[in-house]
Amino acid sequence: MSIRDLYKSFGPAVLLSSAGLVRRVVELHPGQVFFAQGDPADSIFSLSEGRAKLAVVSAKGKQATIALLSPGDIFGEESLAMAPETRLATATALNTCRAIEIKREQMIRAMHEDPALCYQILSVLVARGLRSQADLVDQIFNTSEKRLARTLLLMVESGTPVKPDETKTLIPPVTQETLAEMIGTTRSRVSYFMNRFRDLGLVEYKSRIYVHTPRLKAVLFDQLAEI
Question: Structurally, what CATH architecture does the domain formed by 3-139 represent?
Fold first, then answer.
């Protein structure tokens, strides 16, 4: 099961049907924040509509986007730590968003009382941890070109196949600036790589990006010449 499937297994539908949970529906306009870096981590969210991003800012003011969120994703899970923590990132709405917010105490109590819900949450958190570990390995060992390929492939999980039996997928809207923040390079390098990917038939793009999944995967495994 992919991490996207795990997120969807623990999403708005599960939270709305869980007995005893006090929840609040949050609606945000583009540019508004669910929470900011450094805020108290006192609640967890599940995105039901819209798209958002998680970004961090260094002490010197450098910003990095660490995740793009789609419906079904959970975020703010640092609130479930043993001791109350502060937010590690800022969650910002990219368009009109709706999310379910549950306070830390409510969620922890529900996890103690409902083993099935607890298992779902732990599965998501373990998957998120493995994803973060893979991101770190990718950042350390891969070239920026391969990091871009991996990021685009991860976005395929929340994309829309052009046809049910086709390997070309329309990924969620994303700017080259955001892609540059996510892989730790410049927008000009992302533009160069995207043009190269297009020339090689790995992606198509004008205003939106279509990914040819098998060919882009080949970039990660140095198998392009075999396709």
Answer: Sandwich (2.60)
Parse the chain into domains and list their residue ranges. 3-139, 143-226
Q: Could you report the per-residue pLDDT of 100-131, keeping only the tens digit for each?
A: 999 999 888 888 888 888 888 888 888 888 88
Q: What is the pLDDT of residues 6-18, one digit of tens each?
A: 555 555 556 655 6
DSSP codes, the chain:
--HHHHHHHSSHHHHHHSTT--EEEEEE-TT-EEE-TTSB--EEEEEEES-EEEEEE-TTS-EEEEEEE-TT-EE-GGGGSSS--B-SSEEEESSSEEEEEEEHHHHHHHHHH-HHHHHHHHHHHHHHHHHHHHHHHHHHHS-HHHHHHHHHHHHHTTSEESSTT-SEEEPPP--HHHHHHHHTS-HHHHHHHHHHHHHTTSEEESSSEEEEHHHHHHHHTT-GGG-
pTM score, whole prediction: 0.81
143-226 topology per CATH: Arc Repressor Mutant, subunit A (1.10.10)
